[in-house]
């Protein structure tokens, strides 16, 4: 009896997902982003491409960690020779460092702008362009209406967008598929050698549409993401709301 | 088609102009003079002054002795060039290729123009009469070469029109000055007794070259048509240009949009037939108040797509001020390039920098935010971090060297290093604690130093010793010490690692 109940619930869940437009993934698409356990948090267990992701960065240090994490994701999205557009206010991204995260820096087009309004306009135009693999925009504030415009833009073109919110004052709700927060963590020296280890982050998935938010510790080691520890459970409970 | 040239000589260019401006001068002799070697020298004479035996190059004092009522007017520098330019622009109605021939003439390439006025005689008569009617004493001549036309217009005694192929004969009887020679060579020729070009042409070429130099030979051969003479036209004709006059002046955005669409359709049809595409296009709007407003677009890749170019112009429409109305639209393509259609179809399915839709996107972005905001970087072989990248010039630029990954580089680099206060345990050790913007960071782990020397051939200063450090919270920084460790070492923060 118990078994049939869970069966029914899981079947209903799948049905609801399908009605909401989430098609069951084609075989072999799971785990393509190399995020391991993190991907299980998304509907159908697939990292949603062709949507807009939101990254929250509290300070410059977090913005750097966030940039590293996004670049790691871009390396997968751009692996078939695609190009990427990176629009931002700060313009302090150092292209040679992108290579360490598996992205060819000459394939990234930077747009340096002065206002949030302009960044969002450029992002929206770029997200409509099918010739790009991904679009990254760094803004201070984004409201619900603006995020929905971005979401509408990607629905045609299936380009993946990342909105990096640097030092925004309040976290308004958005229409993005997921809200992430990346924080740097002390690295573990490998093989007992002194000095810095691989870059290590606490990856918090604060909100996921139709998924399970959670928190993980990840490393960028030898050109791929590696899960470093078990997810921090108490944080996950806290972030559920 | 054989070339025909017309040379126009304004015998009293500056004085005619002055007489037009000040009619009272017409009745009396006057000259224009400029200081030369501490005395006033005459640079232009009026016809009346000339009749009294005054010529250019004479001192003003001497001229005043010849003629009692002589009026002397100071020269305005550059006036002749300005006047000739205006006259040249007027003459564009007779031929599209008009060049200014300083100091007192114009050169027209009239190949294929004269028959529109019913032959060369009528054509010449029309131009000379028009110029004379407007107050300028003009003489003109037509010949196969620009040099021969120049010579005949200044020194010709019989007919101003030299029939095709006869220009060498026409030169025979003229003085050597007709070859536009410099004064040193002219004096030499006079001393040697050359009074006519005929005598020069009979001489063996090597002898002339040895005695008078290469420039002399060039002038002579250009006049004879052996060497080609290139003239610099006042206005370079634009090959792709379309005009759209309006019956009624238009001033709404919609009307401008329709005008742009019509012009683009004609232009793109022509470009497509030639296998070319727009790299730069200019829309000129002539308003009824006599002003002209422009809107320009440029593309990253040559394109003849009407919809794309229209989108680019669409971003510019709000910058066009129609004022009382626009009566004429002219669209020009100053820069057109070959479109490689094979490449286009090959790359259509391949997202990347060569993608057409990406190039079109960048054109649109450049139209709105300006091309300077859009950047792409390539590696350069420099260790100094600020110089290790350069801007790519176009979408097709490829990196000349590989990106280096052997050394840690921060993901976020500060635009300029900012000073930090540091405590280090031992000289040459990484810092133990550093304070940046009032916040104290305790360093837990550190890598380094990586010494980067300054490029002494570019700038002076001390080298940098870079350390990658991680504080107890896990945040990673790029710090450096400027110069050697001494009494007061200076430390800076230069970036943030991911």
Automatic annotation (TrEMBL), chain A:
It comes from the Bacteria. SUPFAM superfamilies: P-loop containing nucleoside triphosphate hydrolases. InterPro entries: ImuA, P-loop_NTPase. Gene3D superfamilies: P-loop containing nucleotide triphosphate hydrolases. This is Error-prone repair protein ImuA.
TrEMBL record, chain B:
Coiled coil: none annotated. GO terms for biological process: DNA repair. Residues 9-153 form the UmuC domain. Keywords: DNA damage. Belongs to the DNA polymerase type-Y family. PANTHER family: BLR3025 PROTEIN (PTHR35369:SF2), BLR3025 PROTEIN-RELATED (PTHR35369). This is DNA polymerase Y family protein.
């Amino acid at each position: 009896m118990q078994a049939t109940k869970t069966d029914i619930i899981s079947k209903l869940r799948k049905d609801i997902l399908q009605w909401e437009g989430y098609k069951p993934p084609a075989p072999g698409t799971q785990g393509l982003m190399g995020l391991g356990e993190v991907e299980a948090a998304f509907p159908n267990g697939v990292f949603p491409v062709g949507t807009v992701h939101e990254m929250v960065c509290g300070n410059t240090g977090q913005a750097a960690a966030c940039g590293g994490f996004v670049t790691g994701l871009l390396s997968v999205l751009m692996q078939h020779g695609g190009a990427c557009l990176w629009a931002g206010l700060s313009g302090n991204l150092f292209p040679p460092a992108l290579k360490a995260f598996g992205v060819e820096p000459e394939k990234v087009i930077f747009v340096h702008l002065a206002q949030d309004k302009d960044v969002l306009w450029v992002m929206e135009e770029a997200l409509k362009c099918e010739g790009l693999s991904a679009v990254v925009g760094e803004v201070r504030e984004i409201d619900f209406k603006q995020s929905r415009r971005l979401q509408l833009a990607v629905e045609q073109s299936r380009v993946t967008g990342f909105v990096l919110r640097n030092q925004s004052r309040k976290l308004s709700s958005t229409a993005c598929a997921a809200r992430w927060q990346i924080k740097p963590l002390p690295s573990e020296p490998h093989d007992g050698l002194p000095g810095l280890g691989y870059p290590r982050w606490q990856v918090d998935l604060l909100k996921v549409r139709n998924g399970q938010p959670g928190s993980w510790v990840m490393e960028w080691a030898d050109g791929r993401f590696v899960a470093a520890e078990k997810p921090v459970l108490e944080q996950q409970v806290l972030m559920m709301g | 088609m054989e070339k025909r040239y017309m040379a126009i000589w304004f015998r009293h260019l500056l004085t005619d102009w002055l007489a037009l401006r000040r009619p009272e001068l017409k009745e009396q002799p006057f000259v224009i003079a400029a200081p030369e070697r501490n005395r006033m020298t005459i640079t232009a004479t009026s016809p009346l002054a000339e009749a009294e035996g005054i010529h250019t190059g004479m001192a003003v004092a001497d001229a005043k002795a010849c003629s009692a009522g002589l009026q002397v007017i100071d020269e305005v520098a550059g006036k002749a060039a300005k006047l000739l330019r205006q006259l040249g622009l007027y003459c564009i109605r007779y031929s599209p290729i008009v060049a200014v021939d300083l100091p007192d003439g114009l050169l027209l390439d009239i190949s294929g123009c004269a028959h529109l006025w019913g032959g060369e005689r009528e054509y010449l008569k029309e131009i000379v009469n028009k110029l004379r009617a407007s107050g300028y004493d003009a003489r003109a001549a037509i010949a196969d070469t620009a040099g021969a036309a120049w010579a005949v217009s200044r020194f010709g005694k019989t007919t101003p029109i030299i029939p095709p192929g006869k220009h060498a004969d026409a030169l025979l009887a003229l003085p050597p000055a007709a070859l536009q020679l410099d004064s040193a060579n002219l004096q030499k020729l006079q001393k040697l007794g050359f009074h006519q070009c005929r005598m020069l042409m009979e001489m063996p070429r090597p002898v002339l070259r040895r005695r008078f130099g290469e420039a002399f030979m060039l002038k002579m051969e250009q006049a004879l048509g052996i060497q080609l003479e290139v003239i610099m036209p006042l206005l370079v004709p634009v090959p792709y240009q379309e005009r759209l006059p309006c019956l009624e002046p238009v001033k709404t955005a919609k009307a401008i949009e329709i005008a742009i669409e019509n012009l683009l359709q004609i232009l793109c049809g022509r470009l497509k037939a030639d296998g070319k595409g727009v790299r730069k296009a200019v829309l000129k709007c002539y308003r009824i108040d006599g002003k002209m407003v422009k809107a320009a677009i440029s593309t990253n890749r040559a394109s003849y797509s009407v919809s794309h170019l229209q989108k680019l112009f669409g971003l510019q429409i709000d910058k066009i001020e129609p004022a009382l109305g626009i009566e004429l639209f002219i669209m020009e393509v100053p820069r057109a390039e070959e479109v490689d259609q094979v490449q286009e179809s090959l790359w259509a399915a391949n997202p990347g920098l060569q993608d057409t839709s990406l190039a079109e996107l960048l054109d649109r972005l450049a139209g709105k935010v300006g091309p300077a905001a859009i950047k792409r970087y390539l590696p350069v072989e420099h260790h100094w971090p600020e110089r290790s990248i350069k801007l790519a010039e176009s979408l097709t630029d490829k990196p000349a060297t590989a990106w280096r990954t052997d050394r840690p580089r921060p993901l976020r680099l500060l635009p300029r290093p900012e000073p930090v206060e540091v405590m280090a345990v031992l000289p040459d050790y990484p810092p133990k604690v550093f304070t940046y913007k009032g916040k104290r960071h305790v360093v837990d782990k550190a890598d380094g130093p990586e010494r980067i020397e300054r490029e002494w051939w570019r700038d002076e200063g001390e080298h940098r010793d870079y350390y990658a450090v991680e504080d107890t919270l896990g945040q990673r920084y790029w710090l450096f010490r400027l110069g050697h460790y001494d009494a007061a070492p200076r430390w800076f923060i230069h970036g943030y690692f991911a």
